[in-house]
Amino acid sequence: MTQAHLNDALIRALPKTDLHVHLDGSLRVPTLIELARERKLDLPSWTEEGMNALVFKPTYSSLVDYLAGFAWTCGVMQDAEALERIAYEFAKDNQEEGVRYVEVRFAPQLHSRGDFSLLQVLQAVQKGMDRAKAEFNAALLPGEPPFHYGIIVCAMRMFNEYFSDYYRQLISVLPETRRKNLFGIASMELAKAAVKARDEHGVPVVGFDLAGQEDGFPAMDHADAYAWCHRKFLHKTVHAGEAYGPESIFQSLTELHADRIGHGLLLFAPESIQDPTIDNRAAFCERLANHMAENRTTIEVCITSNLQTTPRMKRVEDHPLRTMLDHRMSVTLCTDNRLMSHTTVSKEIGLAIQHLNMDHKELRNVLIHGFKRSFFPGSYAEKRAWVRQVIDYYDRVMLDASGVKAG
Question: How far out from the chain centre does Cα 219 lie?
Fold first, then answer.
């Protein structure tokens, strides 16, 4: 099959995953406006066009600028009814474009307060996702793989009053001597709540993540929380190498036991290394990449988001995905934020095919990696059977489209 056969309709028909997508970055704008009106919250604009012009822009000056939009989305995500609706619509939007597995991630501490616990936040999202899952799977055709999902909880590298009341609540109960460990304490609280929700309440929490401003807020502040998750067999991923150098990725792998890496954008950027003890920076990047390739440490690649938040990256062709593929690394294509980046998994695949020369064999590997390296909420035997069903369905769709057997 040639690249010409990989058209939009076929890409949408193929079974896909999204392993790196933030719920609070993937709202429908009309829903955001409606919820804000109902809750008597202010917005910069009361039209979809206005919000896209002022907040959810085509380009951003920096990662910090990109993250600022979350204040508006999180503002309407403070009660169970809103969270359930947003999660339901999020799942439906993914299903509409052929996503058969999604790991929805968000920071429960940004939505929790005294009368709305972390568990209740997680259960509200679960309820919306379960409803969409049940509707979709009830209408499956013979041989189609079912839709599944998992929840990844995001610890925050830092909190401030702009984002959440949680910062003020935590400061108020901590003695002065412990406030320097504020963010690590918050992460440990979340880790314990996530494991309890999984083990005692059946919430499909499948992973633990660390998100937020990378530069100036090191991952090591959260090492205790990651060690707890490691001991409790909760999968781990880390936003790393997005706005800080390759040593951030290395630290995530060696100190936080990361199973996957979110973004990894600066993996092949030796000039971004700031650690003075690393002498041969180019060699460090190469060895790190080879280590990740050999250990099949999957990188959650988000092309559009990276272009929006990295001013030095002017074109899709500048993205390191091509280099990752050439190094035979395990990668999967993700959206990061469907709203902030105005994208879908299908669009991300189209960019990789059109601008980064990803051929049909690489596409198959990338999409299947998404299923294989998912934090599937079931046993390994169940996951293997499900992945086999996905592969068979993928090959059938390709064969029906081109008459050429995939693989």
Answer: 17
The count of domains in the chain is 1
Q: Is 382 annotated as catalytic?
A: no
Would the CA dihedral through 251, 257, 258, 259 be positive or negative? Answer: positive
Q: pLDDT by residue (tens digit) across 212-250?
A: 777 778 888 899 999 999 999 999 999 998 878 899 999
d(CA 93, CA 99): 9
Q: The CATH number of the domain where 7 resides is what?
A: 3.20.20.140
pLDDT on residue 171: 56
Is residue 146 situated within a structural domain? Answer: yes
Query: Does residue 407 belong to any structural domain of this protein?
Result: no
Kindly state whether residue 62 falls inside one of the protein's structural domains: yes
Q: Which of 316, 306, 293 is nearest to 365 (CA)?
A: 293
How far is residue 252's CA from residue 122's CA, in Å, rounded to a whole number? Answer: 25
Exactly one of 242, 247, 300, 348 is catalytic; name it: 242
